[in-house]
Amino acid sequence: MSRIEQLKEFLKTSPTDNFLRHALALEYIKLGNDADAQILFENILQDSPDYVGSYYHLAKLFERNQQQEKAIEWYEKGMIAAKKANDQHSYNELQAAYEDLIY
Questions:
Q1: What pTM was computed for the model?
Q2: Smallest Cα–Cα separation from 58: which of 81, 35, 80?
Q3: Is 88 exposed, middle or buried (0-12, 13-18, 19+ CB in 10 A)?
Q4: Domain containing 67 — which CATH number?
Q5: Residues ≥6 apart with Cβ < 8 Å to 7
Q6: Cα distance between residue 34 and residue 62, in whole Å
Q7: What letter would DSSP give residue 31?
Q8: How large is the average pLDDT for residues 21-43?
Q9: Which domain holds residue 23?
Q10: Using an 8 Å Cβ cutoff, are 25 and 41 in contact?
Q11: Closest CA to 42 of 20, 32, 57, 27
Q12: Which is nearest to 78 in space by CA: 66, 16, 65, 63?
């Protein structure tokens, strides 16, 4: 059973588990399936805007797909969420990626 199949199997019993959804999105990215990864990241952040780790990956996905405005938007949202969560490490990562993109 592939990692994706395993994660999907786990999600059958815990469909809103952010850790599992995030892990599945990362697996999709590894396969070049940005469309399904994007859906998962957006669903996570819609349901749990405090799930800070997904902001970076969603913004990077947009950046990789030449959607700079969307990437900037998600980096900014992520920095706000990280600050709110008092997560300085994530804030710094988001800010560095944001600055690399806009400067």
A1: 0.95
A2: 35
A3: exposed
A4: 1.25.40.10
A5: 20, 23, 24, 27
A6: 9
A7: T
A8: 98
A9: 3-102
A10: yes
A11: 57
A12: 63
User: Among residues 52, 55, 51, 40, which one has the least CA distance to residue 97?
Assistant: 55
Q: Helices 68-84 and 53-64 meet at what angle, rounded to 10?
A: 170
Q: What is the pLDDT of residues 45-87, one digit of tens each?
A: 999 999 999 999 999 999 999 999 999 999 999 999 999 999 9
Task: Give the pLDDT confidence score for residue 14 in this predicted structure.
Answer: 97
Over 90: is that where the pLDDT of 1 sits? no
Q: What is the residue type of 30?
A: K
Query: What integer pLDDT is reported at residue 84 of this predicted model?
Result: 97
CA 28: distance to chain centroid? 12
Domains: count for the chain: 1
Tokens 């600050």 sit on residue: 83
